[in-house]
């Protein structure tokens, strides 16, 4: 078996040395008039060049191995972006990446504090933390601000529904109505999507939990907290001059896209193609992560 199926110099490579055979097959299928032969030959030469260039690029991609510093940088970026201050501090000390990547332990801890507040339903506290970190974030992100206020309204309604499972009285929802009137209603007319979201959220006070439509039950799903927390984390990272998404996530998405595209084009890929962050192919030597 070839070590690299994209290597054009590998005799086993079906896309390398068989190019001329493919072009000969085209000649058999296409009965090109003699007058067009010069143009046909030019096309075949150009096609062969493109195939060889493509195969070389793919061969380089498969053979590429990132350096230790690149791997460590990606790992450090993940620890910072996803909010692991303790692990990031230790890793920064062991790899000397603290200054190179603008490591800010306090900034990570602030983002973790905000995220935890959202995940536990303390949205008002989270908003206060955000304003303490950077008061301009919510002022310049009206959609994010609305999403936080909507989640805060949902948490107020959730508390009523959970404490009065049988049949909550209309007066139990007074705090929710007052909050919606003062915080969300003034924003709703500025965008139709805001108005729709507010109407759906207010409807939570009408239906009993077991009789709610599916789209309304989604508002009470705890995964909504995770979604909003992720949006806030991205905004905080962006405000700190960092990428809103960890590079390793983009790398995994790019690989998935490449595999899907290759399969759609019926292009064979190695079963063990790595994204370069493991050491299985070099026996644990060479470009292993520094720990």
Average pLDDT number: 74
User: What's the multimeric state?
Assistant: single chain
Model regions low in confidence, pLDDT < 50 over at least 5 residues? 1-6, 14-18, 279-291
Radius of gyration: 28 Å
Number of helices: 13
Distance between the termini: 34 Å
Order of helices and strands: HHHHHHHHHHHHH
Tell me roughly what share of residues is in helical segments: 55-70%
Largest sheet: none
Silhouette: extended
- Computed structural class: mainly alpha
Q: Could you give the count of β-strands?
A: 0
Q: Which strand-content bin applies to the residues?
A: under 5%
Pfam families: CTLH, LisH
Organism: Cryoendolithus antarcticus
Protein name: CTLH domain-containing protein
Function: Involved in the proteasome-dependent degradation of fructose-1,6-bisphosphatase.
Can you put this structure into words, describing what you see?
Among the domains are: 1-64, no CATH class; 124-230, no CATH class. 20% of the residues are buried. It is extended. Helix content is 62%, strand content 0%. It is mainly alpha-helical and 291 residues long. Residues 1-6, 14-18 and 279-291 have low confidence and may be disordered. It contains 13 helices and no strands. Residues 110-164 form the CTLH domain. This is CTLH domain-containing protein. Involved in the proteasome-dependent degradation of fructose-1,6-bisphosphatase.
């Amino acid at each position: 078996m070839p070590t690299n199926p994209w290597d054009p110099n590998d005799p086993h490579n079906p896309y390398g040395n068989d190019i001329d055979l493919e072009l000969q097959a085209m000649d058999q299928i296409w009965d090109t008039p003699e007058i067009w032969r010069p143009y046909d030959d030019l096309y075949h030469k150009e096609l062969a060049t493109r195939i060889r260039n493509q195969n070389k690029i793919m061969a380089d991609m498969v053979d590429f191995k990132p350096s230790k510093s690149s791997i460590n940088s990606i790992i450090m970026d993940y620890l910072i972006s996803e909010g692991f201050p303790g692990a990031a501090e230790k890793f920064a000390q062991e790899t000397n990446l603290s200054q190179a990547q603008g490591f800010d332990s306090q900034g990570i801890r602030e983002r973790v504090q905000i995220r935890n507040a959202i995940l536990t339903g303390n949205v008002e506290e989270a908003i206060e933390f955000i304003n303490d970190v950077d008061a301009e974030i919510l002022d310049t992100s009206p959609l994010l601000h609305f999403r936080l206020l909507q989640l805060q309204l949902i948490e107020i309604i959730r508390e009523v529904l959970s404490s009065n499972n049988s049949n909550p009285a209309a007066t139990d929802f007074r705090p929710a109505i007052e909050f919606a009137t003062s915080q969300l209603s003034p924003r709703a007319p500025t965008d139709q999507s805001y108005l729709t979201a507010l109407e759906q959220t207010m409807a939570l006070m009408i239906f009993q939990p077991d009789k709610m439509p599916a789209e309304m039950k989604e508002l009470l799903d705890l995964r909504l907290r995770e979604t909003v927390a992720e949006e806030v984390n991205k905004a905080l990272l962006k405000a700190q001059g960092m990428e809103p998404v960890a590079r390793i996530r983009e790398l995994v998405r790019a690989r998935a896209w490449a595999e899907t595209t290759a399969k759609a084009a019926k292009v064979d890929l190695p079963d063990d193609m790595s994204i370069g962050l493991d050491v299985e192919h070099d026996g644990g030597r060479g470009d292993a992560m520094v720990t």
